[in-house]
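Render this sequence as a predicted structure.
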Amino acid sequence: MDPLLHLVIALVLATLLLSAVIHKLADFAAFRQILGDYEVLPEALVAPGAVVVVGLELIFGVAWLTQFTPTAMIVGTVLLLACYTGVIALNLARGRVHISCVCGDNDGQPLSRWMLPRNLLLMAAALCAGLPAELRPLTLVDGLTAFAAVMAVTLIYLAISQLLANAAAIRVWRES
């Protein structure tokens, strides 16, 4: 794999994870409440669970930036995303679509089926980062390309998230 692609994956995942941390810490009490709404933890474990979730996102986000213990970073990120995917799938199966995803990209965005393939794509990207990288030095052009790619992926991700949030709001408006 080209080292530029590895860099883009690392920066995108770091951006995603660290923005989720910022989003959750901005209103930690609301995040704890939403975590409780998922009904996957006993009430006594919701507050410590919220701390663990934010802590893991912070650790893995920083690890993607620093490439600290790459194997643990990749496996940990994939497991974290797999847990999120499982919890989302469980609540979708229960019909509990009103819960916020607390994804860090859109306040109050309700759960939807699109989040499952999105998370699978993110897990696949993380796993791709474990492929052997071609040995070549990164140049200034590579750095600019990586920056542009991360910005493009982030903006596309945010645009899709906003469109889906708007669709959910319109659906609720039409039902009322």
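Summary. The chain has a mean pLDDT of 91. The two ends are 51 Å apart (CA to CA).
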